[in-house]
Amino acid sequence: MQYDVIIIGAGVAGLYAASHIPKDKKVLIINKRETFKCNSFYAQGGVALSKDEDDIPLHIKDTLEAGAGLCDEEAVKVLSHNSREVIDDLIERGFEFDRDDDGKLLYTKEAAHSTSRILHAGGDATGRHMHFFLLEQNPHPMLSDARVVDLLIKDGECYGVTVLDHRESRNIYAPNVIIASGGVGSLYQYHTNAPCISADLQGLCVLKGIELENMEMMQFHPTVYVNSEYAQKLLLTEALRGEGATIEDENGKRFLFEYDSRGELASRDIVSKSIYDYTKKTGLKTYLNLSNFDYHYFMQRFPNIYKNLRDIGFDVPEQRVPISPAFHYAIGGIKTDLKGKVPNVSGLYAIGEVASVRVHGANRLASNSLLEALVFAKKAVQDILQNAKQKKMLEFDVSNEVMSLKGDKEKKNLLREIMWEYVSIVRTNDGLNKALEQINALLKEKIGKLLKFRLLTAKEIVLSALARDKSIGVHFIKKDNNDKIIDDANA
User: Fold this and answer.
1) Residue 437: CA atoms inside 13 Å, Cβ hemisphere, count?
2) pLDDT digits (tens, 9 = 90+) for 314-333
3) Is the pTM of this model over 0.90?
4) Which of these, 178, 218, 259, 362, is most buried using a 10 Å CB contact count?
């Protein structure tokens, strides 16, 4: 079975890429589970953009500052300069962003942005609305409930993939493969990701000798309702804090100003580390106070959060909600250039959260993730279409490796505990080395290939964290008990 382009993943990045490939091209989108089980579906906060020419330098500056000096400035410029274009493209296709009473686009502000530049759809359901819209418009076939378990690569050329489809492996060929499979959420005990986001393709790339970079840069969202039985937790969007929600301890004290003069509007890494440090020091629980919101405005502006919290039993916005940080977003990933191309493997691309195009540096600016997915999805497809060439296809044997074994589930849960305990918000060299030792031990056991993917990705995260011995952005290495969580310069 042969196609012109295979797209791995059916989130916003994969679907937006597919929307730019002409209908006369043979395209296959491979989706691991049901179409709604992707991180795009759960994206609440919105999509950032440069509103106009004057806002481009400010958006670039905000992104670079949030990235703590580790962003690729050229990548950030590409992101910002192309932001208005992709948003206008969605609008021209018929996508509806939220508007004010006069029919003008409604821009909101989020933490670490210097101005209001965030667009939303459906209040707090931007990702869901965008994902559904792109699904409706998708002109290409989709293979669902199938997962990619191998990349068919020989002599620096990618020829397709091996999929596990209804427990049978088979090869599907294409001269161009786009990886858009998302992040690594299921590696952690507490996370906000879709349940099936399990770092398969990152681990597969390690097996294939494809470079991952900045894997130590894992972002934790500060405001998550974690008191539930599921690993996936209820995210409470940054937009809440941007529009007036406050963080306090169980006695009503707003403690964040002790860490940063911006309080609730500091960047995610600062807020997450501050909550972590404060609860460790005081033993007090932390809460999100929503009482600044008018009841009717809250219900209309954040309809899904309102419903979800009411269903759990919270009388919002009057009643405050207990919160804790949880894993949210993988900043690092498969190394690509500014067109989404994977170096040294012709015909292979990576876009969205699975990729590292270096726009986020050491800390992703709020709502830049959907924007990155849109901008670089389009760039990747443009490169494929502009450089289309005949490739003599090769046939590969279908691998018969064992995908999973009986004890793998228990080991997956152990890995989640290891990653949360030693490789989360605050890290130590001792803890990282303990994690590495335990991960290596698991890799030596008899395990299925799917668990091996997770373990290899986790190992890359740990090794990257050990290699960066200085704290920066979301990566915090605590050397001793005197180390401060937040630099005094921010206070």
Assistant:
1) 7
2) 999 999 999 999 999 999 99
3) yes
4) 178
* pLDDT for 246: 97
Among 78-92, 227-241, 437-451, the least confident range: 227-241
Structure token digits, residue 476: 């915090």
Across residues 202-210, what is the average pLDDT?
A: 98
**Radius of gyration in angstroms for the set of CA atoms belonging to the chain, rounded to a whole number:** 22
Highest mean pLDDT among 17-26, 267-276, 300-309: 17-26
Q: What is the pLDDT of residue 230?
A: 59
Greatest C-alpha distance within the chain = 69
Task: Please give the Cα distance from 257 to 274 (Å, whole number).
Answer: 10
**Choosing from 147, 268, 358, 416, which is the catalytic residue?**
268
Question: What's the rounded Cα separation, in Å, for the pair 337 and 280?
Answer: 41
Model pLDDT for residues 161-190, shown as the tens digit of each residue: 999 998 899 999 999 999 999 999 999 998
Strand order across the beta sheet in which 47-48 lies: 47-48, 118-119, 107-108
Is 268 catalytic? The answer is yes
Residue type, 61: K
- Quick one: average pLDDT of 144-155? 96
Report the pLDDT value the prediction gives residue 335, as an integer from 0 to 100: 98
What number of other Cβ atoms are within 10 A of residue 414's Cβ?
13
Mean pLDDT of 58-79: 97
The 3-state secondary structure of the chain, one letter per residue: CECCEEEECCCHHHHHHHHCCCCCCCEEEEECCCCCCCHHHHCCCCEECCCCCCHHHHHHHHHHHHCCCCCCHHHHHHHHHCHHHHHHHHHHHCCCCCECCCCCECEECCCCCCCCCEECCCCCCHHHHHHHHHHHHCCCCEEECEEEEEEEEECCEEEEEEEEECCEEEEEECCEEEECCCCCHHHCCCECCCCCCCCHHHHHHHHCCCCEECCCCEEEEEEEECCCCCCECEECCHHHHHCCCEEEECCCCCCHHHCCCCHHHCCHHHHHHHHHHHHHHHCCCEEEECCCCCHHHHHHHCHHHHHHHHHHCCCCCCCCEEEEEEEEEECCEEECCCCCECCCCECEEECHHHEECCCCCCCCCCCHHHHHHHHHHHHHHHHHHHCCCCCCCCCCCCCCCCCCCCCHHHHHHHHHHHHHHHCCCCECHHHHHHHHHHHHHHHHCCCCHHHHHHHHHHHHHHHHHHHCCCCECCECECCCCCCCCCCHHHC
Answer whether the bond into residue 317 is a cis peptide, omega within 30°: yes
481: pLDDT strictly greater than 70: no
